[in-house]
Amino acid sequence: MGSWALRAALLCLGGALVCSQFHSLPHRDGLIPARGQATTQEPKAKTPEEEEPVTKDCGIAPLKGAMEGSRIIGGTRATIGAWPWLVSLQVQDGNFLVHICGGALVRDRWVLTAAHCTKEASDPFKWRAVIGANDLSQSSTYVRNIRVVAIVIQPDFILETFVNDIALFRLRKAVRYNDYIQPICLPFDVFQKLDQNTSCFISGWGRTKEEGNGTNILQEAKVHFISREICNSKMSYGGVIPNTSFCAGHENGTFDTCRGDSGGPLMCYLPEHKRYFVMGITSYGHGCGRRHFPGVYSSPSFFKQWLTEHLSQGSTTRVFNMDMVRCQILMALGAIILLGVT
To answer: For 38, which of 22, 27, 93, 98 could close a Cys bridge (C-beta 3.0–4.6 Å)?
Structure first.
């Protein structure tokens, strides 16, 4: 009995070492670990593809003309494929998936969103990323439902004040691009000062009025940049807008994001590049569609170093995922079998 127990213990120990060899290193700052799960990085030379923080072909919607679209709150239904980088981030609730926040596909395994969205659930395995969808109540051959294996929070994020409200969700597998699924460009090395003449759009499945319900049909609306002088004035947010955030919408509240739109991108079309860029991430607002209180957006351009560091990891990033769980289960079953034969 003692020898078999010793063998079982050695088997478990050996299995744990084998698993940990591939999956276990101390987690980096900013990760929300779920019950000991961690994102790790191994010292490995990057391939030429991994040197770039985003794909070269980004910000183009094959099924939408560059300046076509709407004229969310005050918005209209988006046409299928209009915003191929829009992601519905959903949480498992029993047998159902519930839309919580929006997100933007910025690489084939990375979704950009707001850090405060993780307040709903910090365990990455509870999240799903639905990509390529227009109507969340309908299934389509081009829609992809992919598990999330890691959540990376900007380490200086403060929930109470929405400072540095930005996060990355890493997908279990890379998504294949098509007419309905494309990445949006990040505003790195793009000299662009947003003003009221910049064509920007919001889109999401959030509430269509402040006390209303969310919608299964993707909505869109055109908005414009609102200066910090106006947005942070006494008649508006009174100086509480973080330095890494800005306002966009409409001064009288005609067009705005609302609950359920958080994490979604503020998409601005830059004609000199003929592409869309994610200039902002929907963060918060005082109510929805209220006069003098437009939506507040985190600016990804302030987080270039942090984003590039994670996005450039590519396939070199090791994530504690279901493979490790399976490995541990197999080791435990092996130990039980050995003990059972005694």
So the answer is: 27
d(CA 108, CA 31) in angstroms, rounded, equals: 20
Enter the DSSP assignment of 174: P
The pLDDT of residue 65: 54
Q: Given the residues 27, 70, 165, 224, select the one marked as catalytic.
A: 165
Biggest alpha carbon–alpha carbon distance for the chain: 79
Residue 259 CB neighbour total at 10 angstroms: 19
Q: Which of 310, 305, 282 has the alpha carbon at shortest distance from 189? A: 305
Phi and psi of 18, rounded to 5°? -65, -45
Backbone angles phi, psi at 135, to 5 degrees: -110, 110
Q: Which of 23, 27, 99, 116 is catalytic?
A: 116
Return the axis-axis angle of helices 2-23 and 322-340, rounded to nearest 10°.
Answer: 170
Residue 170 C-beta-side C-alpha neighbours within 13 Å: 26
Residue scoring higher pLDDT (325 or 146): 146
Alpha-carbon span 313 to 196, nearest angstrom: 36
| pLDDT: which is higher, 196 or 336 | 196
Q: What confidence tier does 191 reach under pLDDT thresholds 50, 70, 90? A: low
Instruction: State the Cα–Cα distance between residues 342 and 340, nearest whole angstrom.
Output: 5
- Residue 96 pairs in a beta bridge with 93
Residue 46 predicted with pLDDT over 60:
no
Residue type, 312: S
Q: Where are the alpha helices (DSSP H) in the chain?
A: 2-23, 48-51, 228-231, 304-311, 322-340
Tell me whether residue 116 is one of the annotated catalytic residues: yes
Catalytic residue among 88, 203, 236, 262: 262
Q: What is the pTM of this model?
A: 0.74
**R_g (Cα) of the chain, nearest Å:** 22
Task: Decide: 182 and 319 in contact? Cβ < 8 Å.
Answer: no
Q: Which two tokens stand for residue 129?
A: 């990323």
**Which amino acid is residue 290, in one-letter code?**
R
Residue 320 CA to residue 326 CA, distance in Å, equals 11
